[in-house]
Amino acid sequence: MASNVNPTVRRRRLGQELRRLRELKGMTAEQVAERLLVSQSKISRLENGRRSISQRDVRDLCGVYEVEDDRVVESLMQMAKDSRQQGWWHAFGDIPYSVYIGLETDAESLRVYEPQVIPGLLQTHRYAEALIAGALPESTPGEIEKRVNVRTRRQDRIKAQDAPLRLWAVIDEGALRRIVGNRQLMIEQLEHLIEQSQLPHVTVQVLPFDMGAHPGISGHYAILEFPDASDSSVVYIEGVTSDLYLEKANDVAKYSVMYEHLRAQALNVEQTRQFIEGIAKEYADAN
């Protein structure tokens, strides 16, 4: 697959364009489904980019929407073809959060709040291995290794020399004090976290326990933004059996405001580094 073709993002863009054409036609998803003898849920999944779309689907939808410009139809058909290609993550087999990986791969910036663990893009190999083994106790060594390798590959966005991902992470103190593996492993992880926080495109802030209640108390979430103005921002909320992706402007705005409050309540960058260093020293003294 060409490196500049991201199937997840292609599906989103295609879905947004198909939704725009439907709305221009003044039709509901239910009406389109009735015309094509398919379920309304299929139309919704095609429009939100969660399902791959065939060129035949595009042709049929363009017919319903009476798209007369052959160049538009051909462009949409090409997007459908590109959206069915495989991203780098498919080489690792079935990945439960492959939709998120596709979005992250193409994102320009990522804001994440993490209350329980160190964010995946900032984890060391050993921390990730111990974390996944603990979180998924029934996983085989091979499955754990696959997940760790995927996580390591995702970190290429942070290391990229050209247009690296801009990452802003607010991390709860609990993530620093949860001993994953052992204290020595945690020392290595915290040192790595400090090192990564010094990159110009990475910002890390810690939210201490003594800040009390805060807008992120309900749990982890991430906000992804994209370089193309036509790609709407996405709020990602990870679940045990399924994930939630919010793209409506009002939803994204609410989570963005919550994030601004989190950043305001958290320690600043220098205070954060000193705080992390202090916890690492506690682990060292306890060894």
Structure notes:
With 287 residues, the chain is an alpha/beta fold. Helices cover 53% and strands 11% of the residues. The chain has 13 helices and six strands. The chain has helices at 7-25, 29-36, 40-47, 55-64, 70-83, 98-106, 125-135, 141-154, 156-159, 173-177, 183-197, 249-265, 269-286; strands at 109-114, 166-172, 202-207, 221-225, 234-237, 244-246. A six-stranded mixed β-sheet has the order 3-2-1-4-5-6, sandwiched between helices. It is elongated, with a radius of gyration of 21 Å.
List the helices and strands and how they pair.
Layout: H1 7-25, H2 29-36, H3 40-47, H4 55-64, H5 70-83, H6 98-106, E1 109-114, H7 125-135, H8 141-154, H9 156-159, E2 166-172, H10 173-177, H11 183-197, E3 202-207, E4 221-225, E5 234-237, E6 244-246, H12 249-265, H13 269-286
Parallel strand pairs: 1-2, 2-3
Antiparallel strand pairs: 1-4, 4-5, 5-6
| Strand percentage | 5-15%
Rg from C-alpha positions? 21 Å
Q: Are there runs of 5+ residues with pLDDT below 50, and where?
A: none
Instruction: Please give the count of helices.
Output: 13
First CA to last CA: what distance?
48 Å
Describe the sheet with the most strands: 6 strands, mixed
Order of helices and strands: HHHHHHEHHHEHHEEEEHH
Widest sheet, order of strands: 3-2-1-4-5-6
Name the shape in a single word. elongated
Derived structural class: alpha/beta
Number of strands: 6
Helix content: 40-55%
* Overall average residue pLDDT: 87
